[in-house]
């Protein structure tokens, strides 16, 4: 009896909080509705009103289903936090895909779901067709999803929706964010959004001016500035046009976006520390050290490798094509200024290998970036050095090894182990994707490139991702983007919860 | 208050400046390698 009532309670809690976050998505649709109204896109306006009603009803239904949570003031446990975070991402993918499907720009609802998951996870791969003629309303929606996904849906919900803070930390951790900027998790969520909103204002203004300089109309320049800022800051990679950032043919815009996506790939804890006056953190932090070393080495190797074949004629084109694409891959942004097939035809296997490695490493933990993160690379690398030093020193030497990440941490075996486990999970995800790509007849290099791009939430493509690719590959890529973004734990918790529930039902009958 | 704002602006711009310096370094190395 006790167990039975406990399981009902869990469903109530999960349903109640999931409903609240879904409810928030309905309100977010007011932004594309406003854009469609201003630009007189009546068909898009109707699409969004229909979608908003559906999302609103689903959210309301879930809240009513779990209303006992509110009445009994039940608190969220760890398992609930993980399951809610994992469930919200799937549910939001389906609900937010409705405007895509209604627009007629996607081949199927699966393609619409693929694009939404790509946006939320800040990947940037696209299956939407005829991108050049997409309505402003839908384009605003696509980039809004990327921006929100980058900061975290649950983080946003914590700022605006959830009133009570008990158990909020469990929801926050469920979304693969674990840094506490202030003791209160709601305060931390607010700071994350404050940092992003300040950059949104400054970055959009700078890109707007750059757009006007290159000859765009002021209104068009403002919209493009918003699109390119959200894509860069969230390390997303969506572009409003099919040519992505190549559409602008501008070194100025490429340089500004490079600055924005490097900053976007930094840990929110690092931004906060620097803004608090700890400027030396930029050089001392294990994550920035790891990023500067790996990105510098990757850029140099790619430059050497490509200059042997004289792929690009001069320093400017090398900087614009090689450095830009390597940094875009390393920060998991995915903005590309060469055509997808140029990677396969011009970059050689060596260039592709460099790209695969940097895409898997990715940006910083607790940032908008994906990949297995510079922090974990740094910790595992320091762990290896620590083990070697221990082997070479006398047995009595009990030296404590540390690493710096906002503050000093002791390098314990448990920290190294958990970092290594997550890296292994990413590699498994990458290898399965590569195998699946090869199974469907794509070359090994192309399969590895695309698989690293989805597992690391990058968004660069070598040409595999298209509406014509096999449905099984689309589903796997959706799963890989989802698992990569949530860093496995929440997804495993959701699977465990579902399996446990099924087992209970089976034993009852 | 004014001083506090100036310090905050300085901290904010140091982040952007640091990134620009890194990009400049990459550009210099690109020029060196391409030659």
What can be said about this structure in brief?
The complex is a heterodimer of chains A (509) and B (35). Chain A is mostly helical. Chain A has helices at residues 2-28, 30-38, 42-65, 67-72, 78-96, 98-103, 109-120, 136-151, 153-160, 168-174, 185-213, 218-233, 251-264, 268-275, 281-284, 286-307, 315-330, 340-346, 348-361, 374-392, 413-439, 444-455, 471-486, 489-508; strands at residues 402-405, 407-410.
Characterise the protein shown here.
The complex is a heterodimer of chains A (509) and B (35). Chain A has 509 residues and is an all-alpha fold. Helices cover 70% and strands 2% of the residues of chain A. Chain A is built from 24 helices and two strands. Chain A has helices at 2-28, 30-38, 42-65, 67-72, 78-96, 98-103, 109-120, 136-151, 153-160, 168-174, 185-213, 218-233, 251-264, 268-275, 281-284, 286-307, 315-330, 340-346, 348-361, 374-392, 413-439, 444-455, 471-486, 489-508; strands at 402-405, 407-410. In chain A, a hairpin with a 1-residue loop joins strand 1 (402-405) and strand 2. Mean pLDDT of chain A is 88; it is low at 1-5. Chain B is built from one helix and no strands. Chain B has one helix at residues 2-34. Chain B starts with a helix and ends with a helix. The chains are: A mainly alpha (509), B mainly alpha (35).
